[in-house]
Predict the structure.
Amino acid sequence: MKFLRHKSIHWLFGLKENRIVSKTAHDSRPVRDVLTSAGDEQVHLRGYGQVRIIRRDDPHGVPRFYVTSMLDMTLEAFNLHHERHWNIETYHRAIKQLCTAEGCSTRSATAQKNHLFCVLRAFSFLEREVLEGRLQNWYALKRNLYLEAARSFIQTTGVGFVSA
């Protein structure tokens, strides 16, 4: 964070709930005790300086804390940044799970670049299929392939599930 401050770059990160902050001098407490409900507040972050902390509860009621160097950030602006961030995280998860982005076992730079190109090309195919309405979502193709393989196996071998 200090590196980014020296480069005059604003940032927004997740924050552990036990990170020590203080509203006033000599009032150091974990961030979970400062923000007890959803909202935001400007505080002093130990080891850094003035920051804005934001608490947001996930759908299961678990609190998530964020910290930003943008002291004037509103909750609306945070929600916009968080939505963009979440879209990027979803994309990365999909290329790892569906396109085997981490599955390259070669050492040469050329082979790794070729693998990455194929991963991005495969993801582009999935995205086009979703946009054109041929797939419901990115995971539908994988699900449909597994269902078809299971159906074919059961039909060919005559093996079925026996209910108890």
The chain has two domains: 2-74, 98-152. The helical segments are 2-6, 31-34, 75-97, 109-131, 140-157.
